[in-house]
Amino acid sequence: MKAITQTTYGTPDVLSLADVALPAVGDRGILVAVRASAVTQGDRRLRAGDFPGISWLPGRLAIGLTGPRRPIPGTVFAGRVVAVGRAVTRFAVGDDVFGTAMRGAHAEHVVVPADGAVGRMPAGMDYAEAATLPYGALTALDFLRDRAAVAPGQRVLIVGASGGVGHHAVQLAHHLGAEVTAVCSARNHDFVRGLGADHVIDYRTTDFTRSGERYDVIFDTLGATSFLRCRRVLAPKGRYLSLIATAGLLLMALGTALVRRRRAIAGVALGTPQQLDDVRELAEAGAFRPVIDARVPLARVADAHARVESGEAQGVVIVDVATRPARASRVAA
Ligand SMILES: NC(=O)c1ccc[n+]([C@@H]2O[C@H](COP(=O)([O-])OP(=O)(O)OC[C@H]3O[C@@H](n4cnc5c(N)ncnc54)[C@H](OP(=O)(O)O)[C@@H]3O)[C@@H](O)[C@H]2O)c1
Questions:
Q1: How far is the CA of 212 from the CAs of 155, 189, 202, 207, 215, in angstroms?
Q2: Of the residues 41, 202, 205, which should be mutated to test ligand 1's pocket, given the most ligand atoms within 8 Å of the CB?
C-alpha cells in the first residue's frame, strides 16, 4: 500500500511517500481503508519529536528517542472497515468508522484496536467531514464535559478558541448551554462568533485576567496562561483546564484536587469508545459543525504540515486518501 513514512524527526520535508506492506490486523484489531485523515498540532509534535516541558522525555521514550519507532505518521482517520480480527464483535466489514490511532493513519490502510478510540461515523457526514472530529471534538468533550462538567448558564472562557481544539470547544460549550467567551486574534473573531461564542477577546490587545469578570471554567488550549494568573478571574468553585501539563501545573492540580475551591486540571485526552460514540451523537445533533480549512492528497502531507505550522489554518487540514482495494490474502490475522 501507499503510505507516508518518516525515519527522523524534523521539518515537514522528513515526510515522503513510499510503498509499504499492508499491516496485519491481529485478533483484536480492525483494518480500515483510510479515506480521509487530518494533520493536527499533535501530528506536528510527533513529526518534530517536539514535546513541551516535562513531557519531552516520556514523549520521546514513548515514540522513539532519536527517531520514530513506527515510521508511518498520522493519528486521525475516517474510512471503511475491510477486515476484522477473530475476536472482534464491535465492528463488521463494510462499517464506516472514524477515530484516532497512535500512528499509521497517513496511509491507504491502518490497523487499530477495535476497543480503542474508534466509532461509527456520524450519519450524513462524508469521510473528510468525519475526519475533522476525532482530534478536537474528542479533546473538547474530554475536558469540558467529562473533567469540568460544564453546565447550562455557566461562564466558560476558551483560550486559543480559533485553533484545532478551540473551535470545537467553543461549539461544545455553546451546545452545553454555557455563556462562551472566546480568546483569539481579531482576524478570527467572526469565525468563533459563527461557532457560538457570545463574547470575543483579542489577546493581543486585552488581558482577560485583568477584566474583572468571573468565569466558572477557563480552558487554555495552548498553554498561553497560568493557573495563578487566571485564579483571580475564576469563580470560587471555578476550574482551570490546560492541555499543556507543566510540572508546576501538575503540582497545582494535585494540590487543588484536595480542596473544594478553585481547581487546576491538566492531562491528556486519549479517547474511549464511549467518547467517540458521544462525539458521533453530538455531531448528528448538530453540536459539532465540520470546518475544513484545506484538503490535500496523501502525497502532499508535507504541505498540510506546513499549513498547520503557519498558524493560519481556520478549521481542520484534511488529507484525502484514495484507497485501492486491499488484497485479502495479505490481511494476515
Ligand atoms: N493534552 C491533550 O490531550 C491534547 C489534546 C490535543 C491537543 N493538545 C495540544 O494542545 C495544543 C493546542 O492544539 P491546537 O490543535 O488547538 O493548536 P492550534 O490549532 O495551533 O491552535 C492554537 C490557536 O491559538 C491561537 N493563539 C495563539 N496564541 C494565543 C494566545 N496567546 N492566546 C490565545 N490564543 C492564541 C491561535 O489563533 P489566532 O491566530 O486566533 O491567535 C491558534 O489558532 C497543542 O500544543 C497540542 O499539542 C493536547
A1: 13, 21, 16, 10, 10
A2: 41
